[in-house]
Amino acid sequence: MAEAVVTGGAFTTAAEERISVATQWQLMWWRFRKHRLALVGGIVVIIFYLVVIGADFLAYSDPHASEAQRGLLPPQFIQFFDEGRFRPHVYAIKGKRDPVTFKRVYVADPEDKIPIRFFASGFEYRFLGIIPSNVHLLGVEGTTAEESIFLLGTDTQGRDLFSRLMYGTRISLTIGLASVALSLFLGILLGGLSGFYGGAVDTVIQRIVEVLRSIPTIPLWMGLAAALPREWSIIQVYFAITIIISLIGWTELARVVRGKFLALREEDFVMAAELAGCGRMRIIFVHMVPSFLSHIIAATTLALPAMIISETSLSFLGLGLRPPAISWGVLLQQAQNIQAVAISSWLLLPVVPVVVAVLAFNFLGDGLRDAADPYGI
Hints:
The protein has 377 residues and is an alpha+beta fold. The chain folds into 2 domains: 56-154, no CATH class; 164-376, MetI-like fold (Orthogonal Bundle). Helices cover 55% and strands 16% of the residues. The chain has 15 helices and 6 strands. The chain has helices at residues 14-21, 24-33, 36-53, 55-58, 161-197, 199-214, 217-226, 234-249, 251-264, 268-275, 280-288, 293-316, 328-332, 338-343, 351-371; strands at residues 4-7, 10-13, 79-82, 85-97, 104-127, 131-140. Strand 5 (104-127) and strand 6 form a beta hairpin. Helix 10 runs antiparallel to helix 11 (280-288) and helix 12 packs antiparallel against helix 15. The longest helix is centred in the middle third of the chain and has 37 residues, at 161-197. It starts with a strand and ends in a 6-residue tail after the last helix.
């Protein structure tokens, strides 16, 4: 039982005293820790962004290297023990002709074991775009290391699916992050101006919000993405998709910020800041926004899954990122054919990180949203 202390004739527990002197961020953290799914979601999100940072290190094969002879190879499973000893290896995959269908099929050969090495040498890359390196988490012995291990199989052009999935994770998650960051800035700025100034400014901004929200989202995304010139480079398309998604996603946050500003602009601390000579932008971003920053964080976390699904959907339909760019949507383009999926079911594996990432962000957002009301502990 918590130790009781007497204060002003009333009994208060030590826990209540601790809460009474805690900062807002401490209260948020204590409430967030009670949300187990949110904690798990947060850990999964951290893992995803570690993959984003170390995609080159985790990919053991050049994601663009293709070879027709190894097209649609099935996944190889790592065998960790060999004759009772810890010796990671994979079975070599041999191709042979099916005597009934006369099609080429691949089977694992248990007699041909390919040892796996950790921190092996492979294709060259620049870690974080700066540090040159050729070290990868996994590799195989011999001169044909890049062509001998396919943990998730290969696609129709013989490219390693695992390595491409690592690079696709980087593109899809950074597009979501960049889009949300831009939407966050537009939502706070325009919503803040609308709620703070009111009058004609509020009317114009709210009419823009209503027009954008009245347009069907998916057809608008498809139309804007299809308007991109086909000759644009991958980088140009990347930033264009980011801007397009951001220009659509700021309206909901702007409505929330406007409502908060309408309630806060008559508060004493805002009037004190005006009397002290603070500029309008300083009052908005330094004094008013931090007062409901927790709500903004929760809204941002919940917006990320929508951004990721938007990019994946557009790229899957061929209206977003296009090959040779690599994203989750681009990887799933080869799974559009039902016959291809029936024969090579591993082509659907990029769906798994999409589902896991969306669920993790949603759980994390739910936890942050609950924690945004820290006095509910």
